[in-house]
Specification:
CATH class of the largest domain: Mainly Beta
GO molecular function: aspartic-type endopeptidase activity
Strand order of the largest sheet: 1-2-6-3-5-4
Helix content: 40-55%
CATH topology of the largest domain: Cathepsin D, subunit A, domain 1
Number of helices: 5
Number of domains: 2
Protein name: Nuclear receptor interacting protein 3
Radius of gyration: 44 Å
Shape: rod-shaped
Organism: Rousettus aegyptiacus
Structural class: alpha+beta
CATH superfamily of the largest domain: Acid Proteases
Length: about 220
Amino acid sequence: MFYSGLLTEGGRKETDMREAASLRQQRRMKQAVQFIHKDSQPHNILQRRLMETNLSKLRSSRVPWASKTNKLNQAKSEGLKKSEDDDMILISCQCAGKDVKALVDTGCQYNLISSACVDRLGLKEHVRSHRHEGEKLSLPRHLKVVGQIEHLVITLGSLRLDCPAAVVEDNEKNLSLGLQTLRSLKCIINLDKHRLIMGKTDKEEIPFVETVSLNEDNTSEA
């Protein structure tokens, strides 16, 4: 019985040793697998997915931002244009038998008429080449002179005016009275009464007209 008990105890120890060896081997295999596939650990997958998501959001946010910037610039440009239009002084006059809205332009020395307005009024045959070929007129807005009308007849109220005008290359159908003509007529711009007052003794007052886009306004008259 004693010998049998020793055998039983030895068998248990051997079994325990085998189990311990098996556990150690399993741990080693697990560690080896973890080392080989360390990039596939849950926290690494999470970090990678987080980075991919952030990059994707960054790329997608660039287009809307550019779009917002373009819209902002467009709104700013339209606001500046509207402000410029609001500052314009327009008066009604007649030229070539047609009603025209003329711009009172104190920022330019010369009377200007656009090529589009010349076409609309049928004044093409009156256009001559610019007489000062070598001279470059100082004009606002980088306008290009393409010709000249020596005798442009304009009716302001009861006053009939015969004056020269430079023809400029422009798609807008407009006419403007420059500083030379305004001075010769002894004009006073009365901003309180919204009137252009001409003359000293026999004064004539021309009311301002509502400021609108010259192109739209004159197109409606065509």
